[in-house]
Specification:
Elements lengths: L2 H10 L17 H19 L8 E6 L6 E9 L5 H13 L3 E8 L4 E8 L2 E10 L1 H22 L1
């Protein structure tokens, strides 16, 4: 039999023979490679919008359908933050990774949740909740330290 006949026989069967299954490959996918980059981009966008990273709580959530782990962040926000602008920035960032950012608002709990999707998976969720006390204490500490410096100079 010729090589053409063998290849035709293999492709014409109902269950074609594969050299290596997708799950057997050890190369990381595009999404796995970029998860760390997305994480860094999210941190930088949070800082850009005036969020204190020390106040953000992170936890990893395992998906039931797959072995994929997404990151959920509880983000206390200053009262003057406009979540629509923040969502637009996250959407622009996600587009670079062939993804999108979708936001939903829960009026009962006074939260806005931004889901960042990439590769048909939600890779990060940010739960924004106004917490003015977090930002008031920081500004009070700054004012106290400024007053203390002025007293020391006198």
């Amino acid at each position: 039999m010729t090589l053409a006949g063998i290849s035709f026989g293999l492709y014409s069967t109902k269950n074609p023979v594969r050299a290596v299954a997708k799950s057997e490959t050890k190369e990381p996918t595009f999404l796995q490679v970029n998860l760390d980059e997305i994480n860094v981009q999210v941190d930088s966008l949070l800082v850009k919008h005036g969020i204190f990273l020390k106040a953000v709580r992170k936890k990893k959530i395992q998906s039931k359908e797959s072995d994929f782990v997404r990151i959920e962040r509880q983000v206390p926000t200053p009262p003057e933050l406009v979540s629509v602008l923040m969502t637009a920035d996250f959407h622009a960032m996600a587009k670079r990774y062939d993804g999108r950012a979708v936001a939903s608002e829960n009026l009962k709990e006074n939260t806005v949740t931004i889901h960042i999707e990439a590769g048909k998976n939600i890779v990060q969720s940010l739960v924004l909740k106004p917490a003015p006390w977090v930002y008031e204490t920081k500004t009070k500490d700054v004012k106290k330290s400024a007053k203390a410096k002025q007293k020391r100079k006198r």
